[in-house]
Design goal:
There is one protein chain. This protein is an alpha+beta fold. The protein has one domain: Outer membrane efflux proteins (OEP) (Up-down Bundle). The chain is 64% helix and 12% strand. The strands form two sheets. It has a four-stranded antiparallel β-sheet, with no helix packed on it. Helix 2 crosses helix 5, helix 3 runs antiparallel to helix 4 and helix 4 runs antiparallel to helix 5. Keywords: Cell outer membrane, Membrane, Transmembrane, Transmembrane beta strand, Transport. Pfam families: OEP. Belongs to the outer membrane factor (OMF) (TC 1.B.17) family. One of its GO terms (cellular component) is efflux pump complex.
Length: 443
């Protein structure tokens, strides 16, 4: 009988271990680098940024096309059921009841108030702006991915803290049950441990939901299929202190993309002013044309007429008309862009300084949280020894355990917050590292 029972228990354990092993084998993991690559491949912002570059390139080609001559062709044919021109004896004995006209004209703008050259420069500038914005889209995707990833790691690590505390309380509950069975304590001590354990189980349930939300947020942003068994490979509990290599904030704006956009806005405003001034200047064009006319039935001989021409257009009324006021509006917009650059420059420096202070505070938070964890661990050990020796009560032990759990949670949060703060600072100073993307990889 015992043999059959042993075999049955062994079989159950084997099935449990095998099933659990399969579960672990199927568990998927994702790293920060993989998350970034997936997001860079999936992001619609980046795709739109590339499309805007193509659009700007098309606009540049359009501006170049203005340098080329314009060619137009036309043809006209008329057939009348009665004579258009009645017969003229000796000169036109048969009259004319049909004729055709065909011509082609090529015109080249020699000078248009500088509008062609300015339009080309404006198109080139738009291409540069589109490329800068495309790089910003990439940096923004990398930043958001890092933030979402570390929030997932934080939830995972906090779950480990709760699991360790659960094990501790379950051990304490077993001890209280043994003491109660031996008649050494009152039942209310056992119930107090049960209450603390129930509170912890509720925290675990809430944290599980938070973790699933963080995972869903990451997967939706990166395009990775959502799977509740997926975990982030990075851990915090075994991490050492990060190296703080930012003794001073980097306030050099020369390579800052936002500052570059402000500079481009001034240049764009200047070109827009020049473009508007072109309406006040004369324009010159030259061209050639050729035409032929005759009749379909050869009622009269056709003739080919080549011709060259030049045109000069002087917008005299534009000097006091609405065109002049439009120029003034563009000049005012240019002054606004210059003022915006000054304000924007200050705001960029403030943003960099704030992100640097946030990063410095996050680093100090790790130091303080590490020290606090050591103190609460020692305090818990002392209270545990005192409780086992009968020198303190259960309340003091539970309070010490709660402080220790809170300290571990704060340390986990401190590490995750530091990673996020560092990403924000690197983003503000245009120093984020962007991984190479393998577009063939699918998740």
């Amino acid at each position: 009988m015992r043999t059959k029972k042993s075999i049955f228990i062994t079989l159950l354990l084997s099935l449990f271990i095998f099933g659990k092993g399969n579960l672990w084998a199927q568990q998927k993991s994702i790293s920060l680098d993989e998350s970034k690559k997936a997001a860079l491949t999936y992001s619609n912002d980046i795709k739109n940024g590339n499309l805007r570059i193509e659009k700007a390139e098309a606009a540049r080609r359009e501006a170049i096309a203005n340098y080329l001559p314009t060619i137009e062709g036309s043809a006209t044919g008329i057939y009348a059921f009665e004579d258009l021109i009645p017969p003229v004896p000796e000169t036109l004995p048969d009259g004319i009841d049909n004729f055709y006209f065909a011509g082609i004209t090529a015109t080249e703008t020699v000078y248009a108030g500088g509008k062609v050259r300015t339009g080309s420069a404006l198109a080139d500038l738009q291409g540069e702006v589109s490329r800068i914005r495309a790089r910003q889209s990439v940096d923004s995707v990398v930043l958001l991915t890092e933030q979402k990833y570390w929030r997932l790691v934080k939830a995972q690590e906090q779950k480990k803290v709760l699991n360790a505390n659960e094990d501790y309380l379950e051990g304490l509950l077993k001890q209280q049950q043994d003491l109660l069975d031996a008649g050494l304590i009152a039942k209310n001590d056992l119930l107090r441990v049960r209450v603390e354990l129930s509170k912890l189980l509720l925290q675990k349930s809430k944290l599980k939901n938070q973790r699933n939300i963080a995972l869903l947020d990451l997967t939706l942003y990166t395009g990775i299929p959502f799977d509740t068994t997926m975990v982030a490979v990075d851990t915090i509990s075994v991490r050492s202190m990060p190296l703080f290599n930012y003794s001073q904030p980097n306030l050099d704006l020369n390579n800052n993309s936002n500052y570059q956009l402000l500079e481009k806005s001034i240049e764009a405003a200047r070109l827009q002013t020049q473009l508007e001034k072109g309406d006040l200047l004369p324009s010159v064009a030259v061209g050639v044309s050729g035409s032929r006319f005759g009749s379909f039935d050869n009622s009269f001989d056709g003739n080919f007429l080549p011709m060259a021409f030049a045109t000069v257009s002087i917008p005299i009324s534009a000097w006091w008309g609405p065109e002049k006021e439009k120029v003034r509006q563009k000049q005012i917009q240019e002054e606004i862009a210059i003022n915006d650059l000054r304000d924007g420059k200050d705001q960029l420096k403030v943003g960099i300084m704030k992100s640097w202070y946030d990063l410095s505070d996050a680093y100090k938070k790790i130091l303080y949280a590490s020290e606090n964890l050591n103190y609460t661990r020692e305090n818990l050990n002392v209270n545990r020894d005192n409780y086992n020796s009968g020198l303190s009560n259960l309340t003091e032990l539970l309070n010490a355990q709660a402080l220790f759990q809170e300290a571990k949670t704060e340390l986990v949060s401190a590490f995750a917050d530091y990673e996020e703060a560092e990403a924000v600072y690197l983003y503000q100073t245009d120093q984020l590292e962007v991984p190479e993307v393998n577009k063939e990889k699918k998740y």
